[in-house]
Fold each of these.
Amino acid sequence: MLRNWQSHSDYQKQLIQRLSIHAQKEKGRLIQLDKAISKLYLLNLDNLLPIIKPLYPNFGRPAINQQGIIRSLTLMLDQHEYSITKWAKTVQQDDLFFDICGFDSNKAPGVGSYYDLLWRLWLAMVKNLLRIVCVPIAPMAKSFI
């Protein structure tokens, strides 16, 4: 089950508020991260809800921060980090990265949350590929029986 899918406009408002706080303490770092912040500010994830929602059942512990994880992975690549494990620890220790990603909880997700989302996306892709490949084969298989 997904919890609290934040709209893009809400993320943008929240980001501006959070960045104004960081501007007082870390202005140089904000300037350095300007392009990365702009990418995430413009990255509208609203259209992903119909794709992500079916990956989670309607029961059990709700998944939170899925949008933040996607933004975090985008920021990770922008920062030329290619280890999800290292990156998850970095975001947990860095308030600015935490806020840029738009996490709405008090704590950044652990590395397992990143891999869980990627695993669900990968499984959905494999199921769709099997459906595409197997459906055309079924009528041909009947002719051989």
Amino acid sequence: MLKRDYILRIIQELFAAIDKLLHGDTRQLTERQHDLESMYTMLGHDAQFFRSSTKEEILETLTVFREDYVQRVEMLAEIMYADAQLFIGNYEVRREIIAKSLELYTYVDEHSDEFSITRVQRIDELQKMLAKYQY
């Protein structure tokens, strides 16, 4: 019970940090991207690993977090969502980050025991973002 409460608190703090990063942070973009990179490393790998891996490879990598596996997948989905918001560069890479975040959120929605209106809204938002990138 305490471990679950601890994980939920970590997730809440991560989401608050990402929200601040996207909406309330006045620092330079490079500093915010650096903070985002450190959030990726909380899950055991750098941003490039998660950007270049398939959904299946990512899910396999996160199995080390047995008890809070689905929550860690959701954390990564949110980090990738923020990454897509801040990413400047290759159009195709940004589209892939959006698509991967959507895949991970969809996975969480299908496997979580808890309903989240925020998650449903995020999935809808990502679908709209991805639609802008369709050819």
